[in-house]
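Project standup — Tuesday

K.O.: blocked on the structure for the chain from last sprint. Re-posting the sequence here as requested.
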Amino acid sequence: MKLQDKNTIVTGGASGFGAGIVARFLEEGANVTIVDFDKTAALAYMESLKSDRVHFEYADLADGKSVAELFDRLQTRWSRLDVLVNNAGTTHLPALLEDVSEKDFDKVFAVNAKSVYYTSKFAVPWMKQQAAGAIVNIASTAALSPRPHLTWYNASKGWMVTATKSMAIELASERIRVNAICPVAGETPLLASFMGSDTPETREKFLSSIPLGRFSTPKDIAATALYLASDEAAMITGVALEVDGGRCI
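H.V.: unblocked you, prediction finished:
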């Protein structure tokens, strides 16, 4: 029970890596709020979890007013916030960098970057009041070893790694730890978007770049998030931990 009674937010927690993190954190005793834009998926997932320690909150994470209202609601529920997992993410389809539309560019940076700005804007002051907290940002190996034709997605995750390190050094004196996880391509709903299509050929191409020979899974990322959020990682802040089967070697 590494997170016993810890109050935790997981953005994008209704599917993919986020869903895996939610399930593992509940197993370890946390109280979890799933923040997602897909109410139907979130409620269906919560039903499958059969836990009274998880609840759902809708928010548009790229809208400051929506995020402010989210935190107002959470502060009526909880007296403290222990863990924030910034997992919500999206990508554009593989394309030449000059062919990605402005609309898709804006969407990628709104979800992958601006959401972290907003959740931090409201979570950090709350954590400062208690002089403790852990923030885990789900970045990507794309930040460290970019793939061609995903330039603006790569850049958004590079932003997240730099933001993580800057947040960590700024917040260390407040006893708030900030770390990032850099997964390789995973078995999540976004996999087909990263590859452009989900065929045996595109899978083989992606897998050939991963020395351990498989995609990451929600369980892999959940186990890493658990460690970084727990007191076992009390001396770790500012890392961008590769969970990538050797992809970045």
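K.O.: great, moving the ticket to review. The longest strand covers residues 176-183. The chain has a mean pLDDT of 95.
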